[in-house]
Amino acid sequence: MRVGLFVTCLVDLMRPRIGFAALTLLEAAGCEVVVPETQTCCGQPGYNSGDRRSARVLARKLMTEFEACDYVVAPSGSCAGMIRTHYPDLFTDDPAEAERVKRLCERTRELTDFLANVVKLERVPGTFEGKVTYHDSCSGLRELGVKTQPRALLARVPGLTLEEMPEAEVCCGFGGAFALKFGDISSHIAERKCANIAAAGADAVVLGDLGCMLNIEGRLRRRGDTTTRVLHVAEVLAGNVEG
Amino acid sequence: MQVTSMHFKARAKEKLADAKLQAALRKLQGNFVKGRADRVAELDNFEAIREAGAEIRERALANLDLYLAEFENNATARGAVVHWAETAEQANRIVCELAAQYKARKVVKSKSMVSEECGLNDALAAAGIEVIETDLGEYILQLAHEAPSHIVAPVVHKSRDEVSDLFEQKHGKPRKTGIAELTREAREMLRPHFLGADMGISGANFIIAETGSTLIVTNEGNGRMVTTLPRVHVAITGIEKVVPTLEDVATLLRLLPRHGTGQTITNYVSVTTGIRGAGESEGPEHFHVILMDAGRTRLIGSDLQPMLRCIRCGACMNHCPVYQSIGGHAYGWVYPGPMGSVLTPLYVGLENALDLPNAATLCNQCGVVCPVKIPLPDLIRKVRERQFERGLKPWWERAGLALWGWTARHPALYAIMTAIGARALAWMGGSGKLIHNLPLGGGWTGRRDLPAPQGKTFREMYGRHWRRS
């Protein structure tokens, strides 16, 4: 099975480690992984800012780059959600492209959804000593139905226990450009998330989207929490956690 | 109502620092969010009811002209008079003319958000007519000269203590502190107004085409007094509130109270049909229904039409992390929260509410809980698109998007730019790997840090694979 890894722009820039963790997991599942070299951004920043045209250009670019893959997998519910739920909206007035978009949507999966539901990964490479709590990122949860998949996979990590936090499904306040434009409100929402994480008393909060990670880690550190780790689910599953 | 949405950011900042408001908002989450979840869980076919509710509203909108004409015919046949108001000003004028026609000096009102849109109370006061709000929350706000901050619980921003102080000051009676005592005092103050009013003004949650009726849901019983005691009843509502049949309304009533207040059904559901008949002892002698457009027809047939399905339950704001953080006043007009982020710019002008559609994380909790399946985040995004098309986005945002879009189309350049960016940010993060103060990124680092990048991009680190193959 030929799987195209869509690294996503934030992982590329901020946390390459997560991209390599995803690679490890896909290879552990026996996939032939290709990483198209020219990939950049799925177009979500433009799309969510009202700039459909630039989003469309980037969507076309991505479609071409991953044309030859049986699946497109991204370590992000937000980017996978952009492709699966929003690309069709971008091409509603372009029937010629509609079929291609539909095929791409069918083949695109968020990483944990792919591992749990498509390749049904039984053994995960990683180990983790400690208690973690899981934050459900909005796009993954409400656009793609990613809820049980990461938990089922984490349950297979030796040494790891999961403690649910209150309001795990409530937004962390990231929201892309929202976090910059409305920083006060965004931080206020993040603070509520951090209080819920603290209530779970876990060693680490684990999640599947880099935007939320940066937001939550940023607020945790500012509120004086230097110990609670913020980890991408791929890092934990792959055992690719920074020492 | 005066639009102050352009001050969203400044007011939001104030609200975040308002400890009393924050406590009140937490209570709302407890009552309404949990209440909705509990009431929905009681239904074993909830999704089917929700689907039916959305279908009913969509059907009404698809044939809006027909159902409105049917409503007018049936209402008229029962002795009501239907008025059409294209604008809020027209609606006010019609009410003032009716007040003059019937020589009304005193008007009692039950809760109506459409009348808030119009600023009806001010228009009536300017015409020398005394207006008394009789919904407890609205009554409190009228005494305090404040605007509602929630469409279902208008006074949610006020604590009981504040109400105690207000009543003591305005009623001139000994200070009460218990909810029951406070409510009793308000009832005692309101009773003579109900009995002495010449005209009652209500809104309408729905208007029913097949019977020509208006319908309101209330919990306090004031609505029933407003619509039956005075000799003239004026109902004012938006044209989109029409529903084809009583059967349809019954379906929608399974959704509205559950989502609004966490109730299976409200204490009162009042269906008002026509005037007092010959030999009947109750009901008004004159019944006027004002159906207001004020921006609604502009949405019909557009990609924003689903917004008109809204049955005004307030679930979207109750579940919104932004509303939960700042309350309703910062939104600066009648409708706060996600529904307001769509309705306000469309009804009062995009340029008068630039922040609202952007002040959303698009988390879609609102879309998930909407009883009539309005895809609120999608509609919010479409309002952003309208802003973008009309050049209403700030220059730096347009420049930023253009730069990002262009760079992302040129992978070689993109690789260089991101490699430089990753190094610069990593350097700024220092040994702690945290950026405390990001130049031009104060929005981010004002109240949180930015974790620094690893230092090299994935692309650089993976590069040898590409070169090898």
**Run of helices and strands of chain A:** EHHEHHEHHEHEHHEHHEHEH
The count of strands of chain A amounts to 8
As a percent range, the share of strand residues of chain B is 5-15%
Radius of gyration of chain A: 17 Å
Question: What form of chain B results from the Cα inertia axes?
Answer: elongated
Q: What is the radius of gyration of chain B computed over CA atoms, rounded to a whole number of angstroms? A: 26 Å
Class by alpha and beta content of chain A = alpha/beta
How would you describe what is shown here?
The complex is a heterodimer of chains A (243) and B (469). Chain A is 53% helix and 12% strand. Chain A has 2 domains: 2-118, 3-Layer(aba) Sandwich (Rossmann fold); 130-238, AF0625-like (Rossmann fold). Chain A has 243 residues and is of the alpha/beta class. Chain A contains 13 helices and 8 strands. Chain A has helices at 9-14, 16-28, 44-48, 52-65, 77-90, 95-107, 111-118, 138-144, 148-154, 177-181, 183-200, 210-222, 233-238, and strands spanning 2-5, 32-34, 71-74, 108-110, 130-134, 160-162, 204-207, 229-232. The model of chain A has no long low-confidence stretch (mean pLDDT 97). Among the domains of chain B are: 56-297, NagB/RpiA/CoA transferase-like (Rossmann fold), CATH 3.40.50; 395-468, no CATH class. In chain B, strands 1-10-7-4-2-3 form a 6-stranded parallel sheet, sandwiched between helices. Chain B has a 4-stranded mixed sheet with strand order 8-5-6-9. Chain B contains 22 helices and 12 strands. At the A-B interface, helix 1, helix 2, helix 3, helix 4 and helix 8 of A face helix 1, helix 15, helix 17, helix 18 and helix 19 of B.
